[in-house]
């Protein structure tokens, strides 16, 4: 069967004829089963093995039907799924992808540690082999959504005698396993969207290992690249997203306008627009099969733009900017910039240049991998992890 | 519509780039700008004859290529990369667009071949958002008098196109005094054009601001080319230059600046492509599309002006002392970038226009 736009439209029509979108879960399951979850995935795994650009056809045809929850499941969809697809066994793919996509099982990410943030490869959480199982001990941090996650992607150290990048292994962690302790980490915004996760004698079967023993760093690279592309996704509509919010404030509050604020707003409006266009251009490149290096840069622009815009929004509100919507401690399900007040947006945006790779690390990546500049001299490259100064 | 380059556009780019690599290297440009004739009219004729750049915007029925703003933009990128001293922007973009608007045909044919060159007699600093100063008047006898300063491309023009009120006049260059003044941009000098009882011929009506807006949207592509050359050249330099026993480009302080510049250029490319793509739309867009086009041009020109200048300034700094020397071609790019910042509306003027187009009103 030739997979063209017409075929995809027919599949979508058949799905709509056979299943009632009012039953959200059944509809999403059926959409996965007919291969319209992500059409470029293989058949049986939510896809049809079709060209990636045909996904746009699916989105158009199925607009207005229940959609996967990209808020709560951001890590599952943006990071876990592409990694499982690339490195998972057939059994792992069959077991995990469907409930991930439908949102029946939420995913989180166990990478960062108190002593290993930007220098992620120094992480010290140990996984020691015990027969068919691995025993995991350590502490992770900045874990978004761990409090409702069923599964996690986990990077742990399986060999301390080799240099840091080489002694890592990638696992799927069962968040319901004994020894997994999730504790809220209250943030600058007052809410606890993040967690600390303590892993004490957690036993994971070897069938939960993703990729080869010692190959964890390479697997993690796939995850991180996918994360950055996902985070860098800019609004598709001109004047939408954060700039739209600030522009609305500007339009509705003429008494707050000053010439200085006007100049700054116009500069940011232009920056938001060119960033949006660069995002569109990147998506065009991707669907034309020319994966450009622009992806790593998009998150960088998104972070600084979001911070500047949310800061301007608070400033231009004057007295109102001195207030805050709600400091009540809460466990949020996902980051919702638009459901909260300007103070929240300003504070939460501070994380945009830290999470998913700091802006400094991303600049290094652009400089070294895109521009081909030499790396800084490294003192840790050939030293076994156990001998590194700590 | 697409923000990518088509295959045809890439072929056009390759032909222009090859020819420029052959005939318009940095040394050749440096040598030329110190001579009495900074423009390379031989190169210009070759570009026109062999690649047909002069007639890109001219419809096929008048001997042109019938191409669109998208192809013109690609040529401008390459000419910007080479700071090529040829009258493409002035004759084949601004003057040609004015003739198309005025409905002229015969001169268009001549311009398409590149054998004749024209210049629109307006200041390069004229803004698409303000009425032109009325410095040229028509006498009772139908002759022109007055002066226009900072006209680009006038010194190599055979014909001057002079907007007076809503009319476009055609004047032979030999009847006009054209005095090149020492110019900041050595590769695109400006001249004072003086008309004194000069015979002119009305060739049609013209809204000159539309021509300037079209030119501004495309100038962004030339600026993209300038920025790209500066970025590439600086990259090569900092990879090779050693200090403190390391390539300068291995220091994080330098790498981060380069990453930021790259990101600015990536966004400049998207903005310039978007403007070119919209400007390529048909000759008579509906009112809504016309506003879209104007906004896209203003976005591209305000962003690309500042990016080209910023990258050029950073390039001078990162080249250290070498960046301050006359023999390194970098200064030609800085001068082009600074001049085009002023040309066809400053970044601030374009942003002011966006205040209206995007409904972000100024304080009362």
TrEMBL record, chain A:
Its cofactor is FAD. Keywords: FAD, Flavoprotein, Oxidoreductase. It comes from the Bacteria. SUPFAM superfamilies: Acyl-CoA dehydrogenase C-terminal domain-like, Acyl-CoA dehydrogenase NM domain-like. GO terms for molecular function: flavin adenine dinucleotide binding; oxidoreductase activity, acting on the CH-CH group of donors. Residues 214-371 form the Acyl-CoA dehydrogenase/oxidase C-terminal domain. Residues 108-192 form the Acyl-CoA oxidase/dehydrogenase middle domain. GO terms for cellular component: plasma membrane. Pfam families: Acyl-CoA_dh_1, Acyl-CoA_dh_M, Acyl-CoA_dh_N. Residues 26-104 form the Acyl-CoA dehydrogenase/oxidase N-terminal domain. Belongs to the acyl-CoA dehydrogenase family. This is Alkylation response protein AidB-like acyl-CoA dehydrogenase. It comes from Streptosporangium album. The lineage of its organism: Bacteria, Bacillati, Actinomycetota, Actinomycetes, Streptosporangiales.
TrEMBL record, chain B:
Transmembrane segments: none annotated. InterPro entries: AcylCo_DH-like_C (IPR036250), AcylCo_DH/oxidase_C (IPR009075), AcylCoA_DH/ox_N (IPR013786), AcylCoA_DH/ox_N_sf (IPR037069), AcylCoA_DH/oxidase_NM_dom_sf (IPR009100). Residues 209-355 form the Acyl-CoA dehydrogenase/oxidase C-terminal domain. Its cofactor is FAD. Residues 6-107 form the Acyl-CoA dehydrogenase/oxidase N-terminal domain. Keywords: FAD, Flavoprotein, Oxidoreductase. GO terms for molecular function: acyl-CoA dehydrogenase activity; flavin adenine dinucleotide binding. Belongs to the acyl-CoA dehydrogenase family. This is Alkylation response protein AidB-like acyl-CoA dehydrogenase. The lineage of its organism: Bacteria, Bacillati, Actinomycetota, Actinomycetes, Streptosporangiales.
């Amino acid at each position: 069967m030739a997979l063209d736009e017409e075929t995809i439209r027919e599949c979508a029509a058949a799905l709509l004829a056979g299943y009632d979108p009012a039953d959200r879960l059944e509809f999403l399951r059926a959409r996965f089963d007919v291969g319209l979850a992500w059409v470029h995935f293989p058949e049986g795994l939510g896809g049809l093995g079709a060209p990636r650009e045909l996904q746009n056809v699916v989105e158009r045809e199925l607009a207005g039907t229940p959609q996967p929850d990209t808020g709560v499941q951001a890590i599952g969809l943006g990071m876990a799924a592409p990694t499982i697809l690339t490195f998972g066994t057939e059994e792992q793919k069959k077991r995990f992808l469907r409930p991930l996509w439908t949102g029946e099982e939420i995913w989180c990410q166990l990478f960062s540690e108190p002593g290993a943030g930007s220098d992620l490869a120094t992480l010290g959480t140990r996984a020691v082999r015990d027969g068919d199982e691995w025993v995991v001990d350590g502490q992770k941090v900045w874990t978004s959504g761990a409090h409702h996650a069923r599964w996690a992607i986990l990077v742990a150290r399986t060999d301390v005698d080799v240099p840091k990048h080489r002694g890592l292994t990638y696992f799927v962690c069962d968040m319901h396993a004994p020894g997994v302790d999730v504790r809220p980490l209250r943030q600058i915004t007052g809410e606890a969207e993040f967690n600390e996760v303590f892993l004490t004698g957690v036993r994971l079967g070897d069938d939960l290992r993703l990729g080869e023993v010692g190959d964890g760093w390479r697997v993690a690279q796939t995850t991180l690249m996918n994360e950055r592309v996902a985070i860098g996704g800019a609004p598709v509509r001109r004047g939408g997203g954060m700039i739209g919010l600030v522009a609305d404030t500007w339009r509705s509050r003429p008494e707050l306008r000053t010439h200085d604020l006007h100049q700054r707003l116009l500069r940011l409006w232009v920056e938001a627009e060119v960033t949006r266009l660069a995002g569109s251009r990147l998506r065009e490149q991707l669907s034309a099969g020319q994966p450009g290096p622009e992806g790593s840069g998009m998150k960088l622009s998104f972070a600084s733009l979001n911070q500047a815009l949310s800061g301007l929004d608070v400033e231009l509100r004057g007295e109102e900017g001195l207030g805050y919507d709600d400091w009540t401690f809460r466990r949020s399900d996902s980051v919702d910039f638009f459901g909260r007040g300007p103070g929240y947006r300003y504070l939460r945006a501070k994380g945009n240049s830290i999470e998913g790779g700091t802006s400094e690390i991303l600049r290094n990546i652009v400089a070294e991998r895109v521009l081909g500049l030499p790396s800084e001299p490294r003192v840790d490259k050939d030293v076994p992890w156990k001998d590194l100064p700590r | 519509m697409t923000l990518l380059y088509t295959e045809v556009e890439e072929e056009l780019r390759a032909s222009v780039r090859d020819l420029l690599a052959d005939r318009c290297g940095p040394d050749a440009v440096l040598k030329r700008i110190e001579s009495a004739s900074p423009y390379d009219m031989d190169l210009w004729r070759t570009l026109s004859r062999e690649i047909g750049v002069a007639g890109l915007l001219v419809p096929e029925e008048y001997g042109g290529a019938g191409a669109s703003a998208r192809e013109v933009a690609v040529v401008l990128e390459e000419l910007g990369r080479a700071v090529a001293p040829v009258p493409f922007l002035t004759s084949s973009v601004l003057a040609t667009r004015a003739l198309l608007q005025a409905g002229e045909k015969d001169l268009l044919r001549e311009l398409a071949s590149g054998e004749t060159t024209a210049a629109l007699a307006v200041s390069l600093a004229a803004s698409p958002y303000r009425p032109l100063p009325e410095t040229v008047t028509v006498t009772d006898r139908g002759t022109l008098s007055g002066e226009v300063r900072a006209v680009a491309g006038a010194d190599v023009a055979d014909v001057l196109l002079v907007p007076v009120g809503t009319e476009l006049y055609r004047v032979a260059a030999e009847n006009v005094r054209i005095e090149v003044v020492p110019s900041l941009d050595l590769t695109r000098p400006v001249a004072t054009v003086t008309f004194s009882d000069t015979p002119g011929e009305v060739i049609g009506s013209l809204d000159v601001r539309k021509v300037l807006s079209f030119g501004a949207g495309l100038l962004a592509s030339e600026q993209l080319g300038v920025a790209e050359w500066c970025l590439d050249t600086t990259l090569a330099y900092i990879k090779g230059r050693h200090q403190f026993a390391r390539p300068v480009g291995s220091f994080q302080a330098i790498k981060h600046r380069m990453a930021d510049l790259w990101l600015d250029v990536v966004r400049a490319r998207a903005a310039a492509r978007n403007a070119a793509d919209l400007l390529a739309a048909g000759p008579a867009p509906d009112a809504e599309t016309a506003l879209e086009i104007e906004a896209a041009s203003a976005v591209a020109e305000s962003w690309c002006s500042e990016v080209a200048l910023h990258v050029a300034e950073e390039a001078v700094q990162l080249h250290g002392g070498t960046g301050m020397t006359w023999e390194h071609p970098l200064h030609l790019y800085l001068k082009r970038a600074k001049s085009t910042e002023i040309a066809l509306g400053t970044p601030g003027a374009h942003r002011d226009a966006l205040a209206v187009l995007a409904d972000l009103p100024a304080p009362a």
